[in-house]
Amino acid sequence: MFWKKRLRCGKNELMSAENFEALLAQKSINASELETLLTARSEQKINFVLIDTREKYERMRRHIDGTDVVLHASGFYPKVKTLKDKDRLYILYCSNGSRSALNAQNMRELGYKRVLNLSKGIESCSGKIIKTNDDVNAP
Question: What CATH number corresponds to the domain at position 51?
Fold first, then answer.
């Protein structure tokens, strides 16, 4: 498995494996859950790919720190096929959660087994995990 029995941040429990399985079943996460998973990933307790599905001009304004892949909405379908590991965990986000939800569903239909959508998108995230073009040059 790609997570330990219990995800921990220092001495504090982040999420049990059972709760994580429940997240996979519901197919979406909220901003707080994403922040927990990003913390766990930074401590090498979980491995996932964070995908921004917005258009380039949206990303130029701001993005979630730790984004691994940018698959712009306008060319998502052909580009998603470059993600070869269908068993890996993928977390998708857009501005408000609608495009990424649709793209997550499309990935599941293509055989990707662990795909989550950030419900309410980047709009629901706090400043702790957001980078703006003032913070970093967006790719």
Answer: 3.40.250.10
Contact 99, 124 (CB under 8 A): no
- Segment 62-86 shows an average pLDDT of 88
Residues 80 and 99: beta-carbon distance below 8 Å: no
Q: Find all residues with CB under 8 Å of 75, minimum gap 6, and list them.
A: none
Cα(89)–Cα(98) distance, integer angstroms: 19
Kindly tell me the number of DSSP H helices and DSSP E strands found in the chain.
5, 9
Q: Residue 32 is encoded by which pair of tokens?
A: 């707080």
Residue 78 in any domain: the answer is yes
What was the pLDDT predicted at 17?
67
pTM here is 0.81
What tokens does 65 get? 């720190």
Number of domains the chain is built from: 1
Residue 16: pLDDT band by 50, 70, 90 thresholds? low
